[in-house]
Amino acid sequence: MAQVDTTNIDHHMTEQQQHQTTEGVAQPTLADPAQPRRERSSSDSAEKAKHDAPADPYAYMTPRLKSLVLWEKPTVSAGVLGSSLALVLSCRWISLLNLACAALVFGTAASFAYVNGLLAFNRITNKADAPRPLAKYYSRSAEFLHLDSERVHRRVSYLTDGLNVVLTELAKIILIEDNKRSLKFVGIFYAIWTLRTWFSTTTLLSVVLVSLFAAPRIYLDNQTLIDAQLAKANDLAQAHVGKGRDAAQQQWNNVYSKAEQFAKDKGLLKKGDKKLE
User: Fold this and answer.
1) Contact call for residues 115 and 134 (beta carbons, < 8 A)
2) N or C: which end of the chain has fewer CB within 10 A?
3) Residue 86 scores a pLDDT above 90
4) Could you tell me what percent of the chain has a pLDDT over 70?
5) How many CB atoms lie within 10 A of CB 46?
């Protein structure tokens, strides 16, 4: 009897160990590992770019523009300024359309001469089975010339953010969100209009680019001196504006008094009439 009890106890312990071992094993996932992975499409990249794009264009563009014009990364700022100036100045003497067409003409003509010359040489040397020249390059052109949709969507998103900032500011100026700001930009646009009659467009754009990159850095390096001079100029302007306002008011009062006296002399204004303010 004692032997039977020991056997039952051993059998019960063995079942418990098997149950614990089964619980420790990870259950297989429901996903089929043999199921092929879906290829990404351009629509996926567009949706990803849409979700990744910032809701507020200012939050994305402002720090990057500040970083450029304040020369926080001198290499990047110098590269952007240099390439922009080169592009603007090249448009003054070189037509980009003519340059592109000339490059395509000479490039295609050189390839045509090379391919057909090599084909003729192969026929003369009895190498008719030789592959067509440059075939390995245009057969793999998709690897080098096709655009990556995700990268294009990201670049377009950057450009769209910049255009949105410009259009938003332009709408605020034209729709008179702030009177002083709109009048200030009217003066700026008129100054550009006037300067355009004196200088060429490329010269004007070059000056604007250099000023855009130079003025903020110069101001930060000499902020105390510039602020002091600006304060003096502002006080002087306010003083002249105040004198001009007083003179205009005095002149208006004189004209009004003369007009009132003239109306009284001609009987147009009765004595009981109140003086108009």
Assistant:
1) yes
2) C
3) no
4) 73
5) 16
Tokens of 174: 């034209």
Assess contact for 88 and 206: CB atoms under 8 A. yes
Q: What is the DSSP string of the chain?
A: -HHHHHHHHHHHHHHHHHHHHHHHSPPPPSS-TTSPPPPP-HHHHHHHHHHHS-SSHHHHHHHHHHHHHTTSSHHHHHHHHHHHHHHHHHHHH--HHHHHHHHHHHHHHHHHHHHHHHHHHHHHTT-TTSPPTTHHHHTTHHHHHSPPHHHHHHHHHHHHHHHHHHHHHHHHHHTTSSHHHHHHHHHHHHHHHHHHHHS-HHHHHHHHHHHHHHHHHHHHHTHHHHHHHHHHHHHHHHHHHHHHHHHHHHHHHHHHHHHHHHHHHTT-S-TTSPPP-
Query: Residue for token digits 């045509």?
Result: 112
What's the confidence (pLDDT) of residue 110? 92
Match 């970083």 to its residue by tokens.
Answer: 67
The per-residue pLDDT for range 8-41, each reduced to its tens digit, is 545 555 555 554 444 444 444 444 444 444 444 4
More confident residue, 216 or 13: 216
Among 23-37, 85-99, 136-150, where is mean pLDDT lowest? 23-37
- At residue 26, the pLDDT reads 43
For residues 213 and 84, is the Cβ–Cβ distance under 8 A?
no
